[in-house]
Design brief:
Layout lengths: L1 E4 L7 H15 L5 E4 L17 H12 L2 E9 L2 E2 L1 H8 L16 E8 L2 H17 L3 E2 L4 E4 L14 H22 L1
Parallel strand pairs: 1-2, 1-3, 3-5, 5-6, 5-7
Antiparallel strand pairs: 3-4
Helix pairs in contact: 1-5
Length: 182
C-alpha cells in the first residue's frame, strides 16, 4: 500500500491525515509505504521527455508495485496542491504497463483544507483524477476541515470522527487489494 501526499511542510496536517489512513491499512494486514513532501518535489511532468530523475523514478516504481494507493492532498484555494497533482501526472508513465495507469487498484482519497468548501472540492478533484487514471476510488472519501480538526504528532486528531474516517479509508483500500489479489 502506497501513501502519496502531504505538503512541503514536514508534519503537515495532510501528511498526518495520510499517516492515519495508512495506519488503517496496516491494521488490515498490508505493508505500507509513504512518499511525501520533499520526495514529491519533482520536475514538472512532461510526457515528451523520457528521462526521469531519481525521485520521479522511485515514485513511478512505487506506484507500479503498489496494489493500492492512498492519496491525501491539502486544499489550496479550492483545489489540490500542485505538488500532489504533478506527482499524479507521473502515473502517465505507466500507460504501457501490464496494469496501465492505476487499473485494478483501489485508491483511497482525502483532502485537508482550511474550510469545508476547499476540502470538498479538492476531494472531488482527486476522485475525478483517480477515475481518469482508471483507479477504483473507495466508497468513502475524507473531507477534513483543518479549521475544526487538528492532527497531533501522536497519530490522533481533535475530532475522533476524522480519525475513524481516515482509518476506514485505509482499511477499504487494503481489503480491496487483498480481495483482488485472491
Amino acid at each position: 500500500m502506497l501513501g502519496i501526499g502531504g505538503s512541503l511542510r514536514e508534519g503537515s496536517q495532510s501528511e498526518r491525515a495520510l499517516q492515519i489512513a495508512l495506519d488503517g491499512a496496516a491494521e488490515a494486514g498490508v505493508r505500507t509505504r509513504l512518499i511525501t513532501g520533499p520526495e514529491l518535489v519533482l520536475p514538472f511532468y512532461d510526457a515528451g521527455v523520457p528521462e526521469r530523475d531519481e525521485r520521479a523514478t522511485r515514485l513511478i516504481e512505487a506506484i507500479r508495485e503498489a496494489d493500492g494507493l492512498i492519496v491525501v492532498s491539502p486544499g489550496y484555494h479550492g483545489a489540490l496542491s500542485g505538488l500532489v497533482k504533478n506527482a499524479l501526472d507521473y502515473v502517465e508513465d505507466l500507460r504501457e504497463d501490464r496494469r496501465p495507469y492505476l487499473d485494478g487498484r483501489a485508491v483511497g482519497l482525502a483532502a485537508v483544507a482550511y474550510g469545508w468548501q476547499a476540502a470538498v472540492t479538492t476531494l472531488e478533484q482527486l476522485r475525478t483524477i483517480t477515475h481518469a487514471l482508471r483507479g477504483w476510488a473507495t466508497p468513502l472519501g475524507g473531507s477534513i476541515n483543518s479549521a475544526e480538526t487538528k492532527f497531533d504528532e501522536g497519530g490522533g486528531a481533535s475530532d475522533e470522527k476524522s480519525v475513524r474516517t481516515l482509518r476506514l479509508i485505509g482499511r477499504q483500500v487494503a481489503e480491496f487489494a487483498v480481495t483482488r489479489a485472491a
